Structures are given as C-alpha cells and as structure tokens.
Amino acid sequence: MAEQGGTANRGWCWIPNWLPSWCPTSTNQLQIAEDSMLRCVNSAFTKQFIPISSGNLLWTLTFCSEGVKDKTPMVLLHGFGGGVGLWAQNLDALSQRRPVFALDLLGFGQSTRPLFYTEAQGAEDQFVESIEQWRTKMGLESMILLGHNLGGYVAVSYSIRYPGRVKHIILVEPWGFPERPDTVEPDRPIPVWIKALGAIFRPFNPLAGLRLVGPLGPTLVQTLRPDFKKKFSSMFSDNTVSQYIYHLNVQTPSGETAFKNMTGPCGWAKRPMLHRMDRLHPDIPITIIYGSRSSIDSNSGSAIKDMRPHSHVEIITIRGAGHYVYADQAEDFNNRVLQACDKVD
Fold first, then answer.
1. Whether pLDDT at 21 is above 60
2. Dihedral through CA 55, CA 131, CA 272, CA 107, nearest 10?
3. By CB distance 3.0 to 4.6 Å, which of 60, 159, 174, 290 could disulfide with 103?
4. Where does it localize (predicted)?
5. Percent of the chain clearing pLDDT 90 (strictly above)
6. Are 308 and 282 in contact, with CB atoms under 8 Å apart?
C-alpha cells in the first residue's frame, strides 16, 4: 500500500535490521505475553487473524454470547503502543450486554506491521481503511467505536468517512484533537541547545530507546512505568503487564512509525481533529471520558461540545484515574461506558 502514495522513511532503516537479535523478543513471546494478560478474563471468546487488503491481517478478539448477538457490537481501538491485552479488566463487563470486538490496530500488537505512508494523511487513511476492510470481513452492519488515545483519533476519522456504520463514538483520553499551542513568547525564545537536541532526536521513532537498550528493555519498562503493575494489581501480582508492554513495543516499528509521521513537535497532531469535527454527521452521539489525574487537556471535549450544539455530546470525568482511565478505575469506567450505550440497540 505504501508504494502508491509515499515511501517509508529510510533514514534510519538500519536500526530494525539488527535490533531484533539484540532485543529478547519474538512474535511467539508476544503471543505468550498476551495470553498471560488475558488469563483472568472469564467470558468465552475467540481470537483470530482477519485478512484485509495487501495480505495484511488484523488480530481480533471476539466476545459474542448467544443472548446479546443481535445487539450493536462495540469495537475497542487501543492507543499508541497498546494492544488488545490492555482491555483485560474491561472485556468481561462490556461484553455482558452486547458483542465486543477488540483488535490490534494495523502496525501494532499481533496485527501485520506494514510500511505506512510517510505523510500524515496517508498514514491516517491506512488506519481508517484497514478498519473498514475489517468491518466488511466481519460482516458488521454498524458498530459503537470506543477508542483510547490514538484509537480515539482513528475512530472519529473513520466516522467522518463512514458515518452510516457508526451508532456511537466513545473517546477515552483522545489524542490529536487540539492544535499545537503557540506558547513561545517573543521575548523568551527556545534556547539553542534545546533546538539542537530536538534536531538530533527527531529522526528516531518514539520507542527507539526501548529497542536500543536490548536485553535491558524489560527491566527498563518495570523501572520507568511501575504504575502499570499497580493498574492491574487486582489481576496480577507479577510482571505480566510490563512483559506484555515490552513485547508489544520492541517488534518492528510499523504503527509507531506511522504515528511519528502523523505528529509534529512535542507529539501534537499534524492534522488536528478539531479542525474536522464539523464534517462529522450531527446524528452520531459522542461520549468523551477523561481521567481526573490525567495530563491530557480536557478542553478538547468542551470544544467538541461547543461545536456540536444540536448533537449529543457527553463529557465524563472519572475520579482517581489518569490517562489509562480504563485500567486505573476499571469498574467505574465499565459502568460509565455501559450507561452511555444504553440507548443503542
């Protein structure tokens, strides 16, 4: 696909070629780590690769009990650096009232990791079209899209293009909505040394450091993000979560590279979604969920509400939760999502 509208960034292509042997990981180890994440899920589910175009496959978990099979399904789209296993505390609850599908986005998790377009719009389009092809293959007439972080951005982009397929959008701590603020005052220019550091590190993908440390990677995840173990402490007392996050993010950097190509300085979206919210069909209801302790600016939620005065827009703040609100306060999150979808058949 990438050959049609752009080429992959080759400037640092030597890194992935030699790092896999340096990093203690493999696709099999990722599969084992995901299975460990899902071992506490009680509901019956299936898992399979769904073929889409260009030989790509999207890894999919399906929860569909007999009593809810006729309800509008909910599709879970994880955020940057995530995967289906991170929904471990949500799958049982959310699948009690309707079918639930969780998939690894193209370029992430166990899904195929292809070359992406180098320009922001091309990469975004690949994410969107992969979901539409997946929906067609799954035979879903319509769905509720729930997206965290990058998944929220993709969910809205998809809904703008395919409004007839979306019954409700749930944005969880969404990335990429506001425009980059012009915070540099004329009398306080950015120091030259900061500009120099930015120039040095700009060619690298966001998670390149995790691959560069090789065998120290698993320990690095545990050291830098001990909070993940706490988020899932009701399920695991060992390093299950950090192992999963490690193996998710040291595979070939495909979706990671796409995300980098979609971002400008400091992680702001090159194509802010707020600029396009007027193109989203007014009949599609939106629920936006933030964590009270998150560093994500919730002003985008208020902006969406102001931009859609004749549409349903609900903003929910969950106390005690950070950016990973679905893991920080799983029970509260699950209940709020179920309530938000009550009116969807």
1. no
2. -40
3. 60
4. Cytoplasm; Lipid droplet
5. 74
6. yes
The upper half-sphere exposure of residue 134, i.e. CA atoms within 13 Å in the direction of its Cβ, equals 29
- Per the listing, tokens 């490690």 go with 246
Among 83, 309, 49, 289, which residue's Cα sits nearest to residue 168? 289
**pTM to 2 decimals?**
0.89
pLDDT score of 59 more than 60:
yes
The candidate with the shortest Cα–Cα distance to 272, out of 167, 104, 166, 156, is 156
CA dihedral 225, 229, 213, 118 (to 10 degrees): -70
| Tens-place pLDDT, residues 226-256 | 888 889 999 999 999 999 999 999 988 999 9
Q: Which residues contact 124 (CB under 8 A, 6 or more apart)?
A: 153, 154, 157, 262, 271
Average pLDDT of every residue of the chain: 88
Kindly report the number of other CB atoms within 10 A of residue 322's CB atom: 19
